[in-house]
Amino acid sequence: MSDFALSEHPHRRYNPLTGEWLLVSPHRAKRPWQGQFEKRQEEELPEYDHECYLCPGNLRAGGVKNPDYNDTFVFVNDFSSLKPEVPDGRYKDDEIFNAESEKGLCKVICFSPKHNLTLPEMSTVTIKKVIDVWQNEYIEIGNLDFVNYVQIFENKGSVMGCSNPHPHGQIWAQRSIPVEPSKECIHQKKYYDRNKKSLLSVYLEKEMYKKERVIIENDNFVTVAPFWGIWPYETLIISKRHFQSIRQMSEEEKISFAEILQQLTIIYDNLFEVSFPYSAGIHQSPTDGQDHPEWHFHMHFYPPLLRSATVKKFMVGYEMLGNPQRDITAEISAKQLRELPKVHYKKR
Questions:
Q1: What is the reported pTM?
Q2: Bridge partners for 109 per DSSP
Q3: 20 to 30 A Cα–Cα from 343, which one of 21, 193, 215, 282?
């Protein structure tokens, strides 16, 4: 029997951030593909849409009118999933039926007044203004006595549940620490307590030495296809400096962060020459008033596209009942993304 190779044989990969496993089947990527590589026809959006509830000067639900904003615009979500005025309480019937009240706050952040832009088509100066808002909101919301975690994220594209193409993201903040960051809390702390270094600091050192999964690097951040990534073109942006949250990000780092966000999203769009959908979000330390030296600032990108603008990966069957699985390895996807043009396809 031949020697085991990550690029050839079925294997499991461990995610040290969550303690979970992924099944990788690289041999399946070689099977004949019966579909077609097609480019989706994109709708040309106007710079201003009088029917868009996020455009400047337009009415939102309940008759609230947006200001004529010129840069970013933040407001409390008109259909918030979390609310601050929730009475404390819980329901428990034996150990099987268990529920408790959850206080929180949801906000919407419009990245730009222009309806037809997305992050890869925005300037780094404009993206940096979005990062300024993320920083300010993390600090302001995190200081609320009923908020222990602030989740900053963006859903891009209708396939990811985004009902409005106007460039925007969201913040959900709440009393409890959500499941995914909670898992990262546990495993980062275990690693830090053992090694007195952050897990992602050591991981990043090894990735930068190997280079095979590094996609983009600048003075302050690195984008990698994580070794344990689930989605075909999943990426992770990690800060070179070990800091816990966006609160601690310097002006220089915010500029670098804007640059790498723009570069990564341009590469994504260039992959299938389409406005590339994804869910992306920042993972950082809780705002519970405790020191969290184990936390290392990072941002996840989870894109669903697989082989073309219209072929998507879904979590079905074995993945819902067993554990996640992928065919295209992190090494292959990193190579594909790394070799793409760095100029947006609409400008070429």
A1: 0.95
A2: 74, 169
A3: 282
In degrees and rounded to multiples of 5, residue 106 shows phi and psi of -125, 135
Residues 6+ apart with CB under 8 A from 293: 192, 198, 244
| pLDDT band at 35; cut points 50, 70, 90 | very low
Question: CA angle, 166 as apex, 163 and 172 as ends, to 5°?
Answer: 65
* Class level of CATH domain 44-347: alpha beta
Q: Which residues pair with 302 in a beta bridge?
A: 279
**Phi-psi region for residue 189, left (φ > 0), alpha (ψ -120 to 50) or beta?**
alpha
Q: Mapping DSSP to helix (H, G, I), strand (E, B) and coil, where does residue 59 land? A: strand
Residue % of the chain over a pLDDT of 70: 96
344 is catalytic: no
CA distances from 201 to 6, 161, 246 (A): 24, 33, 16
Using CA atoms, how far apart are residues 87 and 103, in angstroms rounded to an integer? 8
Distance CA 275, CA 40 (A): 9
270-314 pLDDT, tens digit per residue, is 999 999 999 999 999 999 999 999 999 999 999 999 888 888 888
Catalytic residue among 115, 166, 168, 296: 168
Domain locations in the chain?
Answer: 44-347
Q: What phi, psi does 299 have (nearest 5°)?
A: -135, 130
In this predicted structure, the answer to whether residue 33 has a pLDDT above a threshold of 60 is: no
Torsion angle of alpha carbons 137, 139, 143, 148, nearest 10°? 80
Round the CA-based radius of gyration of the chain to a whole number and report it. 21
CA–CA distance, 34 with 16 (Å, rounded to integer): 36
Place of tokens 């993320």: 134
